[in-house]
Amino acid sequence: MPVKPVHLAAHFPGVNNTTVWSDPASGSQIDFASFAHLARTAERGKFDFLFLAEGLRLRELKGRIHNLDVAGRPESLTVLSALSAVTARLGLAATVNSTFNEPYEVARRLATLDHLSEGRAAWNVVTSWDEFTGENFRRGGYLDEADRYGRAAEFLHTARELWDSWAPGDLVTDPGAGVFARPGSGAFAHRGRQFDIAGRFNVPRGPQGHPVIIQAGDSPQGREFAAADADVIFSRHGTLEDGRAFYKDVKSRLARYGRRRDELKIMPAVTYVLGDNEADAAERAAEIRRRQVGPQTAIAYLEGHWGRDLSAYDPDGPLPDVEPDLGEGVSQGRAQFRGDRGETVRRWRALAAERGLTIRELVIEATGRQTFVGTPASVADQIDTFVQTDAADGFVFVPHLTPGGLDDLVEHVVPLLQEKGVFRADYTGPTLRDHLGLQAPRTPRAARTPRKVS
């Protein structure tokens, strides 16, 4: 059986409790120097891409700005445009919301990034579910889940029509006349449930044709959306067995859309901790988790699920003895508090009782993601095992320190993966599609006639 290549990407930590703020090596999460350091490190390690998440509103807890979040984070596409000037091969992936934006403007900005970076742009297509975030936008904003994914699918298809309104060769350079567009270039018309637009797209087709499309989410709707339209799915699962089940399920959906298994890369979010030996690494990992989930973080997380002020409870004591308030709640803008909070609380009570967990220990358990812990050699082996046994195609590493959190991985683990022959020694092409082994999209002219969407 042929050896599968390992794909690696980096995530710049955002609105979460990943960063260990108390560490002396923890730096700014808004200064450009931090973004540049992480990007250059990822490129030195020959990573496929750097991924930026984005929140559209400062989250709140009990009616106040949630002071455990990053405030002042600059807009992702602007940051990536600047990073395109200080990197040469690294893919640049931005989260852009499909609920509160419009296809023409997003397609234009992404095509621009693809040109500026010479073919390294990617778009993580996300939706928003809450009125709280929607208050920042004219339309206000609640959409049912099915409608959100319906809008996202049409949004993406419309953006592709805009990109396809230019074909290779439509932009012509004439030494005597300068640069001009061929007749008909950029003409488009789209008629659908969500969008009814027609005109002329003013950015020529980018080096990749279409930016790489990423989808983040593990829900059934998210999996189907990824199978139909994404190039990469950014997922989350905690064990080798869960990874294999997710991989099998998502890959099995591709055939119904006429796609091959290798046309969608599955790349879960992961962390890593290295040590001189296995025991040292395990001890360091446990300490990092305790610092990530401090007392204030533990109580705040529980309050989001209980829907109550729990500040009187000891984070190192037992779970609250009160029942959750399943009304509006005390947390705004935090997607992980959706769903059946009552069922979540019941499940947590049973787990805490079974294992004797305190509030803080429970939150550490509940917020953990797959973490590779060990010596550089054992971490390289773990990464390779996941990929070779079809639990993933690669990983998006989320470091616990900014901006130097990838340094050890690139210096000590990547060379071992290269020695195994499962990771590139150097980039073999200029574009992100080259890094991921993805074919260029076709260049249809369908955008020039109206497209009906039911």
Automatic annotation (TrEMBL):
GO molecular function: monooxygenase activity; oxidoreductase activity, acting on paired donors, with incorporation or reduction of molecular oxygen
Region ranges (Disordered): 435-454
SUPFAM superfamilies (alphabetical): Bacterial luciferase-like (SSF51679)
Keyword annotations: Flavoprotein, FMN, Monooxygenase, Oxidoreductase
InterPro entries in the cross-refs: Diverse_substr_monoxygenases, Luciferase-like_dom, Luciferase-like_sf, NTA_MOA
EC number assigned by the record: 1.14.-.-
Residues given in the record as FMN binding sites: 95, 149, 219
CDD domains, per the entry: Nitrilotriacetate_monoxgenase
Main EC class the enzyme belongs to: oxidoreductase
Record flagged with keyword Aminoacyl-tRNA synthetase: no
Luciferase-like domain span: 25-389
Pfam families: Bac_luciferase
Family assignment from sequence similarity: Belongs to the NtaA/SnaA/DszA monooxygenase family.
Protein name as it appears in the record: NtaA/DmoA family FMN-dependent monooxygenase
